[in-house]
Design brief:
disordered N terminus; alpha+beta; 7-stranded antiparallel sheet; single chain; globular; 7-stranded mixed sheet
Length: 357
């Protein structure tokens, strides 16, 4: 009798356990059938959603996570190639660099062919080798790219000048290409480089090819609403946008990329009347500035730290943006960190003693 009871007791768990085991096996087979590509897509989507949540809630992404976010966003691996000045290139083919060490372009090689390959000499990030006193960069910022461009190799005391910008982008009710990376190239290097070098016969065709790439990939738009130039101005009405539009330059001391906010976070909008001066910065921003058209002094800054800097479109929700900005930035080597600001002595509120007679 005991044996019979023991057998019955053993049979019950076997029958009960077989059902969930079968379900698990079917689920495992289904998961395996999806393949590594689907699982990778799910992981990238989860990371992309996580990044967007951080932008929405914090208004900032730390610079230390920049390339991790880039790899997740563009579903590829970070890699580097030698950066040759465009004025050293012919017919789109780089010549052999004359220096043993060279500046580098960093890119994320996407697994998806739909993103498109940047033209020769362009990448997502730029690393300055500092062999030349000056370097001029030409940048195409995708308005739908929440990461923008990374510039590395800048040291405390270096001068960063926002030289020129053009282009119109749409920041609402449009459909750009969030999976197309912004691109940057070393336009010229040496001493006393100027905008004239961008019109040189060996340079202009390469920049024109990159601009055509930007038009194809960044979905240049003809939208009639929420159009902004690179300085955040509506080209139709002349209105100054506060929540989105234009370019933000995050200097090394910013420590990452800054973003705007929705209507519940108006403190993250440009303050005052919308003029993009430093006294109208959003309340959460430090170590960054918004370029102002025609204001050379305002658009020229001295790096206070040695760290990467970033340029990107000003917004917080990028998926409905379209179009791009063409930006020229000039880097000039400094003479070490700038001196700290003087400490002003506070006058004592204690009344002065009367002189003795």
């Amino acid at each position: 009798m005991k044996n019979s009871m023991i057998l019955r007791w053993r049979k019950v768990p076997r029958i009960v356990l077989l059902a969930p085991l079968g379900v698990s096996a079917l689920a495992l087979c289904a998961w395996t059938a999806l393949g590594p590509a689907t699982r990778a897509d799910d992981r990238h989507k989860a990371e992309h959603d996580k990044m967007n949540e951080a932008i929405k809630h914090n208004g900032k992404l730390p610079g230390s996570t920049y390339w991790h976010h880039a790899e997740m966003r563009y579903q590829g691996k970070k890699g580097t190639i030698a950066a040759t000045p465009l004025n050293k290139m012919k017919a789109g083919v780089p010549v052999t660099p004359t220096r043993s060490k060279g500046s580098r372009l960093t890119m994320v090689k996407a697994e998806s062919a739909t993103v498109g390959d940047p033209p020769p000499g362009f990448g997502k990030g730029f690393t300055w080798d500092r062999a030349d006193n000056e370097a001029m960069l030409v940048i195409f910022l995708n308005a739908a790219d929440s990461l923008g461009i990374s510039i590395e190799g800048v040291q405390a005391g270096d001068q960063v000048q926002f030289v020129a910008a053009s282009g119109i982008a749409s920041f609402s009710q449009d459909k750009g290409n969030p999976l197309a990376s912004s691109i940057v190239a070393l336009a010229a290097a040496g001493a006393n480089v100027t905008l004239k070098e961008l019109d040189a016969p060996e340079v202009k065709p390469l920049i024109d090819a990159a601009e055509q790439f930007a038009k194809d990939q960044f979905k240049a738009t003809n939208a009639k609403t929420k159009r902004r130039d690179a300085f955040g101005v509506d080209p139709g009405s002349g209105g100054k946008a506060q929540q989105e539009g234009g370019v933000i330059v995050c200097m090394p001391e910013a420590g990452g990329t800054f973003y705007s906010g929705d209507s519940d976070h108006r403190g993250r909008w440009i303050q005052g009347d919308g003029v993009r001066s430093d006294d109208h910065l959003p309340t959460h921003i430090f170590g960054a500035f918004f370029p102002i058209q025609g204001s050379n002094d305002h658009n020229t800054r001295i790096a206070m730290q040695s760290a990467p800097m970033f340029l990107l479109a000003w917004d917080w929700a990028f998926d409905d943006n379209a179009g791009f900005y063409k930006v020229v930035v000039k880097l000039t080597k400094g003479n070490g960190p700038p001196p700290p600001p003087p400490i002003l002595k506070k006058e004592s509120s204690k009344p002065k003693a009367k002189p003795k007679l």
